[in-house]
């Protein structure tokens, strides 16, 4: 068994892979109203969460939480620290067994699965955990090969290596990064290496947990652009947990807000701003929110409507 990147405590996810006052009802922005009749629900909404309850002892994290993620969107997931964003993601990918509720991913029930191995669609999603969760004793290329070995043991070493090299390039790393160890990479390069591994199986769904945390603003903006470009090119559906307001303005189609143990609203930033929830107002209209909006407006003026960023204008 390989040791994990020692800049991080070994997160269990890697092994599995290979202030808010009372909240209003989230009624105004429910996606089901927009669902075209000709599509099956799972085709339109690859992720459906209903009545999710998660507790740790007496600490209730989610209480009858509902969420639909639309196919092909980048959904930003925000909320104060400890509101349960990561627990929600872990529940969706089957790493956290909820107390109640149902979760369907790509039409399959996650909550009915007996264990991790029972989830036969794990190869159809990729996950970039906080910190990257890379194996420190493996090179970047070998890290990317881990899911390939697990799900496609029959492919040859040469082909597996070739796929890994392609994913490394796809993630914006230079070719020579393939043979480097995580300890030889900068924080931004580690994120890209983690992304390369998340993309190794050509997933339909991409889960990103605070991908720009710890990056400098230029590195964070470059990572945002990479995600937006990959989403557009590969047709991914992206579930993106972030505290980064610039990321929300730049690349997210919609934003889901967690508070009071629920998703209190889902919509575009203008739609969220039209609500009067105090946390939402404080979040987007506070000093940082206004700065992010101003930056986005300036960027939109510079790049025009055809740029890859500026989804919230
Ligand atoms: N395995 C666990 N055992 C006990 N409590 C847990 C466990 N995992 C998470 N929690 C608790 O659940 C709550 C939500 O955690 P979570 O990591 O989902 O928050 P978050 O919204 O992602 O926060 P942040 O923005 O700070 O990353 C926290 O109070 C956390 O301490």
Low-confidence stretches: 1-39, 306-310
How widely separated are the two ends? 48 Å
Report the strand count: 10
- The side-by-side strand order for the widest beta sheet comes to 6-7-8-3-9-10
Instruction: Summarize the biggest pleated sheet.
Output: 6 strands, mixed
- What is the name of the CATH architecture? 3-Layer(aba) Sandwich
Structurally, the number of domains stands at: 1
Query: Could you give me the name of the CATH homologous superfamily?
Result: P-loop containing nucleotide triphosphate hydrolases
Compute the gyration radius: what is it?
19 Å
CATH-assigned fold name: Rossmann fold
DSSP strand content:
15-25%
Q: Bin the helical content.
A: 25-40%
- Please give the CATH class: Alpha Beta
- Note the run of SSEs as H and E: HHEEEHEEEHHHEHEHEEHHH
Overall mean pLDDT stands at 82
The shape, in one word, is globular
Total helical elements? 11
* Attached small molecules: adenosine-5'-triphosphate
Provide the fold topology.
Blueprint: H1 12-17, H2 41-44, E1 47-56, E2 59-69, E3 74-79, H3 85-92, E4 100-105, E5 108-109, E6 125-128, H4 140-151, H5 157-170, H6 187-198, E7 205-209, H7 217-234, E8 237-241, H8 245-251, E9 254-259, E10 262-267, H9 269-273, H10 278-285, H11 287-303
Parallel strand pairs: 3-8, 3-9, 6-7, 7-8
Antiparallel strand pairs: 1-2, 1-4, 4-5, 9-10
Helix pairs in contact: 4-5, 4-6, 5-6, 7-8, 8-11, 10-11
The structure holds adenosine-5'-triphosphate (ATP).
